[in-house]
Each structure stands twice: as C-alpha cells, then as structure tokens.
Specification:
The protein is α+β, with helices and mostly antiparallel strands.
C-alpha cells in the first residue's frame, strides 16, 4: 500500500503547508508568464525594445553609462548589432550620403555597429571581467599606486572620444583583497567602455574597486582630453580635465593624500 501523508493538525504546520502550495502556484504562474513573455518577444518586436522592457520590469536603469549585460541573453548581441547597423544606415541616409554607390561608406554602418557594441561601448553589454582576488597574507599596509593607465572612452553628450590617463592609489589593511596589476586595467576599461561623463566615470571606478578590494583607503585621479572641446565647439586643443575621488584614509589623512599626489607628479614626468 502506498504511504498516505496525513494532513497536519498543528496550525503552524497547516500555514506552512498552505504557503508551500501558494509558492508552487506562484512559481507555475511565473514560469507561464516567462513563457508568455518569450512568445511575445518572438512576434517581431525589435530586440532593443525587448531588452528595454526587461530592464524596466526589473526596475533597473539603462542610462548611457549603465551596464545592462544581465538583461541580454546568450546570442542576442549579434541580433542587437544587426539592429544598430540597420539604424545606422538610416542615419547615414539622413545625412544625404549615398551608401549604395559610395565605396567609402557602403560598409560603414556595419563597422560602426560592431565598434559600438563590441568595442568602444562594450562595457554596457558585457559582464564584468573575471578577477581573481587574493587574501592579504603578508598583511600589507603601505601605499600602493597603479598607473598611469591609458583611458579611452566617449562623452555621453556628443559621443566624441575621451583620451587620458588614470592613477589608482590603494591603502590596504590585513583584511583587504589583492588583485593582479593587469586586473586594474581590465576593470578600468570595463567602466570606461561606455558613454561617460568624466566625473561619474571616476566615481564608478572608485565604487567598483572599493567593493572588490575593501581597502582602508582608495584614491583615483583621472586626467583626460575631451574631443568634444578639441574637435568641435570652442576647438581648444590645449585644455584638459583633471578630477579625483578620495575615499577612506585618503580623505581623512592629509599627509597620506599629499604623499599620493606628490608621487603622481613624479610618476607623470
């Protein structure tokens, strides 16, 4: 005879059993909803619209310098790139460029779409690079500086290049994580490979490194040329922008801050 499970008599057990049934029904409804979403997404809706809806439904954000990789499914970047290529062809045609007969621009839309999705704005569409973190076994607690590292980005306002250099200062403690030198460059490039505003980019990079390293102090200094000033507008090719973010001990300790900044000046020569 098959075992028959008796109904629980204890009110708490009854409530727990009812909650379990409700959770199962909710899961079934959720799965059915996802199936419905997938069916809806296959009805000719542009992929960019589908991704945007996923972000909104998750109460996320899709600003120019946000990473939206978690909302993009496997294999969809190729489709998104094709959509951008199609839209870029329309931009070129609206600029009254003969993309059918001009041999210089026949393939421009494809090149630009690939550049945006796979290269210069890849930090929006790809997950953070894998970074191995090591414990601070030697209990290092002295100032470390990484840089200058070359920065390449584009301004959110005009999509003109931002080219510069960044320095990172770390004051570890015995509980801090350590990462390889090349990983600083990889994380920096992931943040900068998006349309950016320099002030926000430095803060984003500092947030990421602070979360990864858990140091006593963190400092980031970025010096950059903005081609929205060099190439257009006032066309001043001499000006640069320099800004910094100081966290923890760099913010509290003026001696440490001066040591960091003085070493930067030596390093920059």
């Amino acid at each position: 005879m098959d075992d028959v499970k008796a109904a629980p008599h204890d009110p708490a057990e009854q409530a727990q059993a009812a909650a379990g049934v409700h959770a199962d029904k909710h899961a079934q409804k959720r799965d059915a909803g996802h199936a419905g979403d997938d069916a809806h997404e296959d009805e000719g809706v542009p992929l960019s619209t589908r991704i945007r809806e996923r972000v909104i439904n998750a109460r996320g954000r899709y600003f120019a310098n946000d990473n939206i990789a978690e909302y993009i499914r496997d294999g969809e970047l190729d489709t998104l790139q094709q959509e951008v290529e199609e839209k870029m062809r329309g931009v070129l045609e609206s600029l009254v460029i003969d993309i059918e007969n001009d041999h210089n621009t026949q393939d421009t839309a494809r090149r630009v779409a690939k550049m945006f999705i796979r290269e210069v704005f890849s930090g929006r569409y790809q997950a953070a690079p894998p970074v191995t973190e090591f414990p601070n076994a030697a209990a290092l607690n002295e100032l470390m500086i990484v840089g200058p590292m070359t920065v390449r980005s584009a301004c959110s306002h005009h999509l003109c290049p931002i080219i510069g250099r960044v320095w990172i200062g770390v004051m570890p403690n015995e509980h801090s994580n350590l990462i390889g030198l090349s990983k600083y460059a990889r994380l920096m490039d992931w943040i900068m490979s998006r349309p950016q505003i320099q002030e926000e980019a430095v803060a984003q990079l500092a947030d990421l490194l602070e979360k990864r390293l858990q140091p006593d102090g963190l400092a980031v200094v970025l010096e950059a040329d903005h081609y929205c000033m060099h190439w257009r507008g006032v066309k001043d090719n001499q000006s640069k922008m320099v800004n910094s973010v100081m966290r923890g001990s760099f913010l509290r300790d003026s001696v440490l801050r001066r040591e960091f900044l003085s070493l930067l000046q030596t390093n920059a020569r």
